[in-house]
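User: Hi! I'm a student and our assignment asks us to look at how structure tokens line up with a sequence. Could you show me two examples?

Assistant: Happy to help. In each example below, the sequence comes first and the structure tokens follow. Example one:
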Amino acid sequence: ELRAWADAAAAWDRYLALDPNDDVARRERGFNVVRTGQFEEGAADLRWFLARHPDDPDGHFELAMAELDVDQDVAIAELDKAIALRPDFAEARSTRGGLYYKEGQPEVALPDLEFAAAHLPNDAVTLDRLGWNYVSLDRPADAVKFLRNAVALDPGDPAKQLHFARALAGAG
């Protein structure tokens, strides 16, 4: 939560020196390394992990998160794998729904975002994604409820404030 990715990666390095056979630790190290901006090095750890553990939904989710700014097609494919392995993976469904929305596919995004919002009712990002998706589907009255909650959870975010204002205007 502190976003101290470099410190977290260094802690995983120290741990792996003590237990070099802990595959999950290597996965987590790789994910934190990606977050420091070292995509290739971190993604290599994530791919190594998935080669050994192809049925790990967290590994697919973390690789998808790493790929978000690099290759969105790969990110969606990894999210699909994570969700296939764990259908109730709300964070993965929120992220995939957000990507489909950004690609201009709000109808495809909707089931993922509705599922995620039902399972993550205090996640302002998910609520904002769902609300804004409703606005794009010309359902501003549905959007208002979710965007009101998103703004209440994260009142300092101007994008959420703007989305909420537009939904209110659209709902009359």
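Example two works the same way, sequence first and then tokens:
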Amino acid sequence: MLCRQQRVKRSWRQWSLRAQLTLGLLVGLLLLGTVTALALFVFFERFQQHLSQQLLDDNSERLLTAIVQRDGELQLDLSRIDPAYQRPLSGDYFLIRLADRTWRSRSLWDFEMPANASANTEEGAFQRLEGPAGQKLLQQSRSYQRFAQTLHITVASNYAPLSAEFRRALWQFTGLWLLALVLAVAAMQFYVRLALQPLQRARNELQAVREGRETFLNAAVPLELEPLITQINHLLEHTRGTLLRSRTALGNFGHALKTPLAVLTHLVERPELDAHAQLQTQLREQLELIAMRVRRELAQAQSAADSQAFEPFVPEPDLHQLVAALEKAHGRS
């Protein structure tokens, strides 16, 4: 289990910074969009319910005002009611009950709308029930006093179209949000690529330093990268100084060995060793090898002292120096 977690962490670290930022933005926007969509869904549902209830209250009040008294009896003035009540299955329905009569909207057709969907329903409470043709009805029953008589008015309205309209608006919002998400990710990709350009330039400059075409990194970088570039330049300067000091020390050491080697070479050539020709030859060969190695290291140290660390081999000037050194060493062109 621990190894798997380590592999997951390692694979995540191996992702590019651009991919990590893009993924983080995508996850953040998806979470924000999901929370926003859920909040809007709850808001739309409550707003739709409140609007439907308000419409039922208004319809009930208008029906109450449509009841008039003529010739000593109560009548329903059809000219004062909404024409939707006259269209069959229009979605708007009413049922008015008096002690001796009942008025029902023509829109009910042959559907029997209960005065109360439940015996335990409180006065003025809203109920949901199945209506004609599979409609979803929101119903309210209320009692009024008009012309010294008690009226029970039940109104109902099909809330499915309004709910469908709200859901359509929610889907449209979701589509726009997804489009905004795609545009935001594309913009983030462009911005991240633009923001990472200084890092790419620093990488190219490091390659140039390694190849000897540059000495230090350009310090004209964004404020966030300035400490990093400064530390890298300090490290390059320290490395360069250490390398030059090492080569200088090597040159000093080689020069220090030249005198003892000259003394040993002179001693080998003394006549007392002529009787030991084989030993003399071996000593002469070993001293010559040491002297050759010292001369080589001194030449490298001298070249380093006059050049910069990480400086590449440039054929035209370097070959002239090499030829001049060979001419001095061998005394001929």
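Here is something you could point out in your write-up. The chain has a mean pLDDT of 77.
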